[in-house]
Amino acid sequence: MSGTVKQLRLVVHAEDYEGALRFFRDVLGMPEQEAYSGDGGAQVNILDAGRATIEIANTAQVEMIDEVEVGRRVAGHFRVALEVEDCATVSRQATEGGAVPIAPPTLTPWNSLNARFDAPGEVHLTLFQELG
Question: Residues near 24 by Cβ (< 8 Å), separated by ≥ 6?
Fold first, then answer.
């Protein structure tokens, strides 16, 4: 199939570009793949986020996930979820790096440890660790 998708790029428009870049690159450890600058102070950094997927969920599923992980509906239209090796440690690093905790690492019915944040760049973020 010639139209097969080869890469997913999530583009985040961050008013505090330096703060968001520092958080995702330096705090969460997402290595820089490419960086470009252009006229008028235009800047972009492309960071490696590992394997990408798109999770399509209906309203009932989104509400159920929010209830399990946070106890109430908090996610907007998009939520970024990053798999990490140690959710508790990376959650502490995220908080120290400028993310606002919404819910601490929580054991889910699908056997993962998930934590929620409002991260720099106005990104609603889940950090999750697969346990099983």
Answer: 30, 47, 119, 120, 121
Encoded tokens for 50: 């590992």
Please report the domains of the chain, with CATH numbers, ordered by start residue.
17-130 (3.10.180.10)
Q: How far apart are the C-alpha atoms of 28 and 70, rounded to whole Å?
A: 21
pTM, two decimals, is: 0.90
pLDDT in single tens digits along all 132 residues of the chain: 578 888 899 999 999 999 999 999 999 999 999 999 999 999 999 999 999 999 999 999 999 999 999 999 999 889 999 999 999 999 999 999 999 999 999 999 999 999 999 999 999 999 999 998
Q: What is the 3-state secondary structure (H, E, C) of 1-62?
A: CCCCCCCCCCCCCCCCHHHHHHHHHHHCCCCEEEEEECHHHCEEEEECCCCCCCCCCCHHHH
H or E stretch at 113: strand 112-119
Residue 88, helix vs strand vs coil: helix
